[in-house]
Amino acid sequence: MVVLYGSIVCLGLTLGSRGPMISSIASRLFQGPAFGRIYGFMLAAGGAGGGLGAWIGGFVQESTHGYAALYYSGAAILIIGGVPFIFLARLIAR
């Protein structure tokens, strides 16, 4: 039971800190009058991805009878999603 409660506390602390970190980083990267639209799109896209991801993941798992395709596609999406932030950091540094 100690491991369970410890896991719950650690997960709660990390997920609870995600929201303020995302909004703080976004406000520093995307300053100006368009920030509201950009941040709103980020929140909407995150919600849509969270909602659709479970359905699509279930469909792919049932179609392929395994999780390998989901792991590989998840890794590819993570890499593709991270590339713009590399270039964004370089543009802001200038």
Gist of the model:
The protein has 94 residues and is mainly alpha-helical. It has helices at residues 2-29, 35-64, 68-93.
What can you tell me about this protein's structure?
The protein has 94 residues and is mainly alpha-helical. The chain is 89% helix and 0% strand. It has helices at 2-29, 35-64, 68-93. The model has no long low-confidence stretch (mean pLDDT 86).
Helix content: over 70%
Task: Estimate the mean pLDDT confidence.
Answer: 86
Approximate strand percentage: under 5%
Number of helices: 3
Question: What gross morphology would you assign?
Answer: extended
Tally of domains: 1
According to DSSP, the number of beta strands is: 0
- Spatial separation of the terminal alpha carbons: 51 Å
The biggest beta sheet reads: none
Order of helices and strands: HHH
User: Rg, please?
Assistant: 17 Å
Structural class: mainly alpha
Assembly state: single chain
Extract low-pLDDT stretches. none
Map the helices and strands:
Layout: H1 2-29, H2 35-64, H3 68-93
Structure keywords:
single chain; 94 residues; mainly alpha
